[in-house]
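The instructor's notes for this session suggest beginning with a concrete chain rather than abstract definitions. Hand out the sequence below and ask the class to guess, before any prediction is shown, which regions might be ordered.
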Amino acid sequence: MSKFVSSWIAALCSAILIVLSPSAAWAERRIALVVGNAQYKNPNLVLFNPKNDAEDVAGVLRSLGFEVILTVDAGKRDLDLAMAQFARLATGADAALFYFAGHALQYQGRNYLMPTDAELEDEISLRFQMTSLDDVRAAVERSGGVKIMILDACRNNPVVDRLTRRTVGVSRGVDIVRGLARIDKTQGIVVAYATAADEVAADGAGRNSPFTSALLKRLLQPGLEIGTMFRRIAADVNEQTKGRQRPELYISLINEFYLNSKDRPIWEQIKDSADPAAFRDFVNRFPASPRASDAEYRLQMLERLARERQLAQERAASQTVGAATTRERVDREAAQQRQVEDERTRLPAIAQESLARQSAQPKEDQDARARAEAARQKQAGLTLTPSLAARPPDVQPEPLTREQICKRDEEKLVRLRANPARDEVIRFEQELGCERLRPQVVRLRESISMEGDHGERELDQRPQVEEQHPKTDAQPQRSERDASTQVPPASMPPEQVCRRDEEKLVRLRASQARDEVIRFERELGCERLRPQVLRLRESLAN
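After discussion, reveal the predicted structure:
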């Protein structure tokens, strides 16, 4: 009793494993019988390629998952035994395939395959020494799935002519033809003929016949539906034989069938992948696969997503850089503003210190300094406001406020710009009381120095040109740059100066010329525009 229970449990477990195993549930059972007859006993019937054809086809079918029965140069008994084994294995199989290469003929509308030991003397030997194709079809039809018959036969057979001559006059029904006749229609079967009905197939000059050569080529292409595969084989043979041999195909299938489905497991592995290289490799390896279009679509989608991610990353990086640049610019402007505030805070102390130094000097020194300053101003042709030292000796100077000091220095700076004298500018820079004007004074001094050096270099480099010109033309002329950058006279109101500088700033923003912006910054007369000019120069530098 215990042994019975143990056996029952073991059988139940095995059944469960078989049901749950995907490989067992989905694996196909494929059976094939491959026959190649080349060395016939009759020397006139010997062929060269059927043995090679059968061996090559058997090798390819094994690689495609078929259990192959191979028989070469089979006599009548060997062929019958192979047929019996094939019929048993084909029972209930998912696919049963029969391939024959050798001599065959038809007699009274029936097809016969010729064993190597057959001797055709009359119609009786034809019936009992040949293998009827109807028997082959009966073995193939034991399969519950797809049934395939591939006949690379109907070679040129001289025995047919002799047998025909012997039977003429014996029977009115004698009809012996080299080519094969079409078989009756059968559901679920595929029959491929190497040549058209009632015609002869070529044996070929190479290792394989033209038909088997094309068959081997197409069997190695994964993803070809069987109907499409045999149609391409027919086109290959027709092209190779230049139209002398035209294969035929009879197909009666409801569903599609693939002899080579090596692409299926690979597709199952990559179909949910996000790797574009996997789908690109699949398309290259299996271009004829019905899944190739799906692989191309997935590849295009993944490549488009990759491009979108790259563009998003580039936009994010550019926004980060722009934010950093904006923060740096804001920090620079804040630092400049703090520097201006610091200078404004120091101005009262500087003005008081300057007045203290002037009051501490002897009155004689102050008078001499005032007279020298008046002489220089008279020589320059300027009308100046009375200085502190030119006041009567008995009048003590009152401390100036920060606004008064800056206003005084601004007026002097305007006069110096109208008539720039290098010594006067240097002296003004040394005595400057309004520190916020110091950058302008420094730029004025540097521009005077640059123009002087430039003029000296021009005189040294072109002495002969000046001698050739008439004396009337030797008078100095202002260049367009000097005319455009000429500082207005001191009488120009500040509003007019700012309006002029605003117009030039608009033109510089349109032209984006960095050298012109730097020159304009040095010669700026309207101080409230300086932050805008500074930002324009920094933007051109970036």
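Then share the key points. Strands lie at 30-36, 66-72, 95-101, 104-107, 110-113, 131-132, 146-152, 176-177, 189-193, 248-251. The radius of gyration is 55 Å.
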